[in-house]
């Protein structure tokens, strides 16, 4: 078996007395696309923030065997982790191209970082819009820019928080195809989604959260036909 790239072991996170994530264990292997599904409030965003170091967590978080649990966000970024939050957090009054340049900020002065030409190859729409302010982009284009900007930091594990949120179905399909392509190009992906149908179509493996714990886990094909998943997360879509 391949050694996991990311390993979370019994991770718990509390907001005061309320435990939002309770003893979650998961792994992401190199080059794999793993999805975390669950309804509103299941604990998905809290889990991602704990893995990235935005929130303190109990338990253990390891990346390529190294313990990250107590490391700050910057140190985790330096190890190769990247998180695209639900809000996407672009600089609206800056151009698409300047947003991309900022994505390579941690390599400033070293000549490292992603290549803007490479991003335009992966995301042709961004090339057409390179001089436009990010604030003028459509929802789908903003998500593409958020992904391209994250890639400029050359992450080895990309975590995405609900990239489908607020997008029309056709655009969701396009965003998901892009996420799958990034996996095919070698970036390991942890994809948090409420849109279970879209996520399971591209994922290799999935975890279902409810009430802050993992209630179901399996390869995506098994999850797509699991009666509980179909009834709770796929049936209504
Ligand atoms: P969503 O899809 O709405 O983002 P989620 O699965 O990501 O849902 P979380 O946002 O992680 O869920 O929330 C998990 C639980 O923690 C919820 O009950 C939520 O109300 C609670 N919670 C989230 N953020 C805070 C906070 N800052 N303070 C207190 N409780 C919080």
Number of helices: 10
The CATH first-level class comes to Alpha Beta
Low-confidence stretches: none
Overall tally of domains: 1
Beta strand count: 10
By CATH, the superfamily comes out as P-loop containing nucleotide triphosphate hydrolases
Output the radius of gyration: 17 Å
Give the amount of beta strand, in percent. 25-35%
Which of globular, elongated, flat, extended, rod-shaped describes the shape?
globular
Class by alpha and beta content = alpha/beta
Helix content: 25-40%
Distinct bound molecules: adenosine-5'-triphosphate
- Mean of all residue-level pLDDT scores: 92
CATH architecture: 3-Layer(aba) Sandwich
Arrangement of strands in the largest sheet: 6-7-8-3-9-10
Report the sheet with the most strands, covering strand number, pairing sense and barrel closure. 6 strands, mixed
Distance between the termini: 35 Å
Order of helices and strands: EEEHEEHEHHHHEHEHEEHH
Report the CATH topology name. Answer: Rossmann fold
Keywords: Amino-acid transport, ATP-binding, Nucleotide-binding, Transport
Organism: Methylobacterium nonmethylotrophicum
Family: Belongs to the ABC transporter superfamily.
Pfam family, one: ABC_tran
Structural notes for this entry:
The protein has 237 residues and is of the alpha/beta class. The chain has one domain (6-234): P-loop containing nucleotide triphosphate hydrolases (Rossmann fold, 3-Layer(aba) Sandwich). It contains ten helices and ten strands. It has helices spanning 44-52, 73-79, 96-103, 116-122, 124-128, 139-151, 169-184, 196-202, 220-225, 227-234; strands at 6-15, 18-28, 33-37, 58-63, 66-67, 81-84, 157-161, 188-193, 205-210, 213-219. The strands form two sheets. It has a six-stranded mixed β-sheet with strand order 6-7-8-3-9-10, with helices on both faces. Strand 1 (6-15) and strand 2 (18-28) form a beta hairpin. 42% of the residues are buried. The model has no long low-confidence stretch (mean pLDDT 92). Bound molecules: adenosine-5'-triphosphate. Residues 6-236 form the ABC transporter domain. This is ABC transporter ATP-binding protein.
């Amino acid at each position: 078996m391949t050694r996991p790239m990311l390993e979370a072991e019994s991770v718990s996170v509390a907001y005061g007395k309320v435990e939002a994530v309770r003893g979650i264990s998961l792994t992401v292997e190199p080059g794999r696309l793993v999805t975390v599904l669950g309804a509103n409030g299941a604990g998905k965003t809290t889990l991602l923030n704990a893995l990235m170091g935005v929130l303190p967590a109990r338990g253990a978080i390891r990346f390529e065997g190294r313990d990250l649990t107590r490391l700050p966000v910057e140190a985790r970024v330096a190890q190769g982790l990247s998180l695209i939050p639900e809000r996407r957090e672009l600089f609206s009054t800056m151009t698409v191209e300047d947003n991309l340049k900022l994505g390579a900020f941690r390599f400033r002065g070293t000549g490292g970082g992603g290549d803007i030409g490479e991003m335009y190859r992966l995301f042709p729409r961004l090339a057409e819009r390179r001089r436009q302010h990010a604030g003028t982009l459509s929802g789908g284009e903003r998500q593409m820019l958020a992904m391209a900007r994250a890639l400029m930091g050359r992450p080895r594990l990309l975590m995405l928080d609900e990239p489908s949120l607020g997008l029309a179905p056709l655009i969701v399909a396009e965003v998901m195809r892009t996420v799958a392509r990034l996996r095919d190009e070698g970036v390991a992906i942890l994809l948090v989604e409420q849109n279970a149908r879209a996520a399971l179509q591209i994922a290799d493996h999935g975890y279902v959260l409810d009430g802050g714990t993992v209630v179901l886990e399996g390869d995506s094909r098994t999850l797509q036909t699991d009666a509980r998943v179909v009834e709770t997360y796929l049936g209504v879509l």
